[in-house]
Amino acid sequence: MAPDFRKLQHRLLTNWKTIPIEVAPLAAHRVQHRLHELGSSDPQVREHHLVKTGPVKTDQDFFIIDAKFPQLLTASDVEEGKDGSGKDGVWEVEALAKEIKAIQGVLEVGLFCGKNGPDAAAAGVVGGMKPIAAYFGMEDGSVELRTAKQ
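The structure corresponding to this sequence follows.
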């Protein structure tokens, strides 16, 4: 299934305002607290539309936390002199992904960064690879292909 058109954006956190983070249910409160310390304005456990049904659970029975952050910087932004170290909640994409993944109880982060699949495999990296292509289902029914920059 292709991601929908709302997730297609020129810069992260412009159209889709949160980063999805898969967490162990017992760690959800601690993870929310740490995300707030990292600069997320209001990290929330994703709830079903029907309140009585409780939090959304993944296929593995984990929770999803949606974390709002200011727009993320790219490596080229940092090269231009912008500070992506987390000061005032402003992060470079890979730096934030690394910080979030280091939180105990976090299983996966919805930031696809780092080495792409073939480069990661050649370097012996396991998991967390950036896809080399993504297909987006557009509102008019067409499909748009985006490929990773090499």
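The first helix runs from residue 28 to 38.
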